[in-house]
Design goal:
- This protein is about 30% helix and about 20% strand.
- The chain is of the alpha+beta class.
- The chain folds into two domains: about 5-80, DNA Primase, Chain A (Alpha-Beta Complex); about 110-300, no CATH class.
- Helix 3 packs across helix 4 (about 70-80) and helix 7 packs across helix 10 (about 290-300).
- The longest helix is centred in the C-terminal third of the chain and has 14 residues, at about 205-220.
Amino acid sequence: MPNQTDIRRARQTDLAAYLISRNVPLVKSGSRYKHKDHNSLVFTNNTYYWNSRSEHGNSVDYLMRHMGMSFNEAVEALTNEILPAAESDPRPSAPTTPNHDLYLSPNCKRAIAYLCKTRKIDHSVVQRLLTTKPQLMYQEAMTNNIIFPIYNEFDQYVGAEMTGTLSEVRFKGIKLGSKYGYGFNVRFPMSVDNHRFDYALFFESAIDLLSYVDIKTRLENKKLERCILTSMSGLKLPVIKNTLKVFSTSDTTLTCVICIDNDPAADHFREVLAAEGIYYLDQRAPHEFKDWNLYLTAIKTK
């Protein structure tokens, strides 16, 4: 395991210089660099800012999030220090980890605090994610990001949606290598191996999905039955098409329910669905609220 001096050196390494040395296409823009293929991805000294994603971090963060490296591998790469083979990465894990390449915290305290206190999602809703088998939420050890594992129609782990836990910086994204066309999903009755659905509900994020569950099941005292709720982590037509295809059965065609935001991007996405010939029911938050989490927050802060 790297010592604190190596970790500090790695985090302070000139990130742009390192990436250029690895043939990553960066373009100089004043005193900064921009990624050739992502204009809003900017590098300054040992930090990066991905403005369109509201994401930022240091050199180690970037290599872990976007170059598929473990913490040890990132420190090695940035310091050119080879770590002893006998040492291992600090990888505390829960009894059932969704994938060996995720660095899991032994508890989810930071994740729970963020969801319950900052996002106002009831503790009982979050707790159900932790007790479902297999588990539907973890916390990453190095970043404290929330990991929402993605399971396919065969109950196999195929990726993860990641959500940051810093109130002042909103980070969300899909783990590198996640399978195309799948999203984090919660099934009702709540069991990962449940495959009998009539409805497929689609959200822009796991946070909105959980907010909807809280509103419907607790505040409105309604029962969710025979439905699969899926986060697209954005507005992704392939996730909708694939979910409707693989989670339907020979005798049941899923009804598509769109639970996305009240904003121009979401309105355009609804037009795309119509153009694609996808019939859907529109279930959005009340028009004065942008999304389901803002609606939930407003209800609970009255």
